[in-house]
Design a protein that fits this description.
The chain has about 350 residues and is an alpha/beta fold. A five-stranded mixed barrel has the order 1-2-3-5-4. Strands 6-7 form a two-stranded antiparallel ribbon. It is globular, with a radius of gyration of 24 Å.
Amino acid sequence: MNQLENYGVHQRFMNEATLYPQYALARVIAQHKGMYRIITAEGERFAEISGKFSYEVETLSQYPAVGDFVMVSIGNTNSPSIIHAVLTRKSVFQRSALGLTNQAQVIAANIDIVFICMSLNQNYNLSRLERYLSIAWDSGAKPVVLLTKSDLCENIPQILAEIETVALCCDVIVTSSLDASTCKALYPFLKKGVTASLIGSSGVGKSTLINLLAGKELLATNEIDQYDKGRHTTTGREMLLLPNGAIVIDTPGMRELGIAHADVEKTFSDIEELAKQCKFKDCSHTNEPNCAVQKAILNGDLDERRLQNYYKLKREATYEGLSSKEIEEKKLNEMFREIGGMKKAQHHIKSLKKSNPR
């Protein structure tokens, strides 16, 4: 049996693979620093990228990631396979690479569902959830909000009501590690051949949840400390096969999630729709007359916090990929928008100096 069939291979990848007749098709199932573990038609192997691939790659996001389908040359049993090409991704969840300017880091590729995990303790944060949703919607996968540790929460109905105002068009699942039956709500999403990735902060219970779904301990788990700070139980990204044939990717907890690409408009579709009702097309939603957004805030239909986070994430998405000089120029243009931008402001200042010489 072709082992790739157990790991979500689609016809589109097999078709693209025919462009590389000299290599074999494989999928990356684990990544630890510079080494990869792959699954081929025959089974698992270790792999590394070729020197030519490493030389030609231009950005961090072009390197193989867990979930990628790749073309490899298979060596003997005692030597790793060599990755020569990454096939076109159908979806990709990525964030800004820490410590690297204008670089994106791929967390998981070719995923069908992104489970955004948030525990119902001090980790619960609506603004963080909006950030995850913006990146998830942009990834091309379906986002699902997964609330863990419900046994630590005394006001679940209130929490769900809050989440309904931000997780628009998303399913929301509530689970507890103390009640394995709560995991059954995930099964309609986790079907044979479906690839899902669990994304969230450290200590929210991703590994625990995967163990419950698997019916055995596939991953090590740690308790959070007294300050509710999760520890990085998962140190590398890894793809796991569940008994029902679904595929899940466990990822290390992320304390920071910088925006590489985001669909802010879809995440904040309520604000986008309100903006269409404003009197002015370029309404800043601050002090303009007949502003539908400000009216919604005054009526209690929209939270001021949500509006401010909308602005924040939109600015981050706008500045992503720009140099420091370009970012500064864009900020100045925003500051002087009312008089036509930075260049017109500079021209206006020069005119004032000429008309009022010292």
